[in-house]
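Entry type: protein chain
Record version: 2
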Amino acid sequence: MASAVVIAMTCVCLCWLLQGSCVQGTTLTITPSNANTSVFLGGEVEQLCAVTSGEDATIEWLHNGSVVPTLNGHLLLLMADYTHIGEYFCQATLTDTGSVIGPVSGGYLHVLDPTRITAPPIQYALLGSSTTLQCETDLDPDATINWLRNIPIAAGTLTIDDVSLEDEGSYTCRVTVTRGGADASTNRNVELRVIAPPVIISRPDNYTVFQGPSPLSLVVAFQSNLFENTTVAWLRDSDSVPENRIQTVSVNSSHGTTTLSFPSTSRSDTGTYWVAIENNSPIIPEEMRKVEIHFQLRIAILPTLPTELQVADDSDPTTARITWSLTNQNADDAADSLTLTVAPGLILGEDDRDYPLDGTATEAVVMVFPGVEYTATLAAHNQDGHRITDPVEFQTPAREPSVSSLEITRVDQTTFQVTLNVDYTGGGAITHFTVAFRKSGSGDDFSSLG
């Protein structure tokens, strides 16, 4: 039960004092030696008793005067309990002569109470703080305590300053107690968990998305030790968010994500969203237990485009009346304003003319030149942007030139000067004039001059 020292007993007359008979030259050995032994409850005890002469013998162990079960001289206690406390003796009965050798003392067995060691298996420390791991006993004021983390790291008290995440993990507290000159040691495993206030790792920024049937997920990632003590709350403005839209999962023991899901988006989802992460572990100071973030979500809706953009068939070649139909379904997709753009030619360019209009307008009359090709588009605007219709091409009707005045002046006896004032505003270039004349009162046909 102590060091492996062989103690031999040789028969002399003093054997009678041990209440046994002796055979000259025959001895008993006990391994470990007949010293006192200490063991914690549930520990293992083993001793071997043998006859050194090599003679056949029956080996017995005695405890408090009673024979205890043995195996070939082995005293083996696999789970020592308090009934095993006391002194043990070994004796041998020689097979040939029946002589008894012994009994020889194997020492006194102390069984110690492990519940008198205090070492909580899980201990907590706040990140950045100073902590002392707890491991103590009242079994012996001179008990020794050693701390190991794979290798010895401290004797007596283990204090960790400025606790970091690297300090988290398993530690071993080894307690050694002495009874009757014999040492007994037992280990207590301690897990240190480093607790940090909750921290937001990633979050949505202010977010704009267009209304539509596509789903939308807003994800917040966070760190929070003791995940089972962590709560997550979502708010929109001052209202709670439906629980069926929120999913909070643990990525590992200290990290998690919380997701707010929208099967589809509408203007009513616009608002300020708040996320609060709170860890209610009492080791965290109350003012550090909760962290909040907020962001803006704006659901954008572009206005519905007007349809049936067309030019009315009016006879005035200097104006064009352009009409269209409004097709918005509700106020969300209605246009706040319209812009009609008309440009000469088939391509919009620097000669464009814009006509700002109210969002409820359904027609506009614009000034144009006769006989010119034009391109027109209509843009619908609201707070979220604008949309533009496909271009519509049209040509204004041409206008015939007319002579507003005619003057004839004689130059000489054979030459006259004819002056014409022509009223014409477009429809193509004037290519030539034709002047017809005849002798007054002759009744002759007119003659033409090109």
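Comment: Confidence is low (pLDDT under 50) at residues 1-24.
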